[in-house]
User: Fold these one by one.
Assistant:
Number 1:
Amino acid sequence: MAYRYPQDVKRPCIVGFGIACLDYLYLAPKAQPGGFAPILDYKVEGGGLTGTALVAASRLGAETIMLGRIGDDDTGEQIVKGLQAEGVDTSNLIRVPGAASYFSIVHVDAETAERTIYGREEKNIDCPTDLIPLDVISQGDILVLDPHWPEGALTVARKARELGIPIVLDSSLKPSHMAVVAASDYAVVSRRAALKFAGTEDCLEAARKLRSFGPHTVVITCGSEGSYYADENEEGYVPAFEVRAVDTTGAGDVFHGAFAFAAAQGWNLRDVIIFASAVAAIKCTKLGGRAGIPDLDQTLLFLKEHGVQLPL
């Protein structure tokens, strides 16, 4: 049954630009080099930073549109069908003739729920940025962006800035990504990337340094240890929700999609992070980057059970 939204809950349109891929996941204990370990569970599903973020936003109730490029191979077809099954509009994706799409083999440790990713990157995927349908960006309330295609991401970011559409960025903070970082509004990055970038072990110090590059808001995600944040008004920390984790694959991607959904409601930053943390935590209770993503009803119930009341 579809969720019946309260009148004061906005159904945003979220446009995403970046990578979508196909994940082959298997749950197993770690094997010793040259040894054997039994596969306890296995599945194939869509993945990728922006692709999974949009699936999360779609399940929460947002309208979602995917921009970017993939190959016209069988893997690309499976990626597109996976997004379409979740209600993501893929009609504006660039299908590059003769290109091979990205796929990953993901080992999920049966004891720790941590994942190790082996990725096969795209081949023959180059194409001009003027193929990107920039007019589509105007339909969005928020843009979710990853710089997997740096030139394309910068083109899209500049157009979003021109239109006044806020940008939620997922980036590893490589030097080639910094122009996109500077153009973003919300930089939501992993602790590993943030600390390496800032040359510090202090998350709030890293957030301050990253803010100096352009984003007005920085969130540093630390997995089961919670999140740190800083904007022009405050700095703080939000603890993670405790769940029985099965698989952490895609947790950060889901966080980004839920963050964009909540930010579109106009909530304060701390409430946005609490909401995104809840959605990401629930996701971790099932194998796969998308299988465990909750809808809005499930998320609100989870929050209620944890004594959290958000401004719905």
Number 2:
Amino acid sequence: MANERFKSVSVIIETRDLNKIYEGALRGQDVHALKNLNLAVNSGEIFGYLGPNGSGKTTTIKMLLGLIFPTSGSIEILGTTDIAAAKVKRNIGYLPEGAYYPDFLQGEEILRYYGRLYGLAGAELNNRIDAVLELVGMTFARKRLLRGYSKGMRQRIGLAQALISDPQILILDEPTTGLDPIARKEIRDILARLRDEGKTLLISSHELLEVELISNRVGILFDGVLQTSGTLDDLLTTREVLIEVDNVSPQSIEVIEKAGFRIEDRVHQRMKLRVPEGRSTYEALELCKNQGLTLVGVMPRRETLEELFVRVIGAAEAERRKAS
């Protein structure tokens, strides 16, 4: 059964005023897991969906998959609100965190089982198995029992499972957690390739560096509320500037430190001084010039996604404490 493709839409996943209340879930009290969530994931992008434990990420994913239902609000996927339709389900691939498969099965058998669940059979299924195994670099281990797979190999076969129906959407929960640096790089390259081929990926992860390396946009969730959302260029601010200079002396270092600029990475007569947020780069440059130092370079330092995450969550926690 060929996977039915939807007509092109610019927004692949959209939620409007989405709420989820678990009644009596906490000592008989209701838990408001999601609060008026308005989320948009665009076609052909990797969207990093971030938040601390208990923020509502898993609840969101379960609702997108149709495993649980909203208390109020709406979900639109691939231009339709009928997200329970089989043609929608066939166009969503899902890799849960810590996906477990029977270890007495071969990698190929796992894919054949899931392919049949999607309605694939015969030559079409065989072709898809060949294609996804090649994509994730697991052709060599297709006949090997899963009990002989490393964690990285298990993650790859899980990704192959999510891709077996050739879906337009991939929802991935912690796809690189627990993997070694080489395996992370390999998975990251595969995800970037899938995006470049036109697939849309929603990735929930605590591995913020991995998300920063491949995401087009991110959203940060806290206490069921989407705190911020946008491109990394829009969200990450320039926090500090590094100025690299040469021909430094003990006297010039003393003057620079007394002026409140931190010195780091000093090697012989070359060093970098850090201009913190709120201080004037021009002032630091003039100070270096007056000390007779040779300017090597000026390097703005943008905050990392981790720093943005801590800043946004910290502000949200402060607001919650103020309100309570």
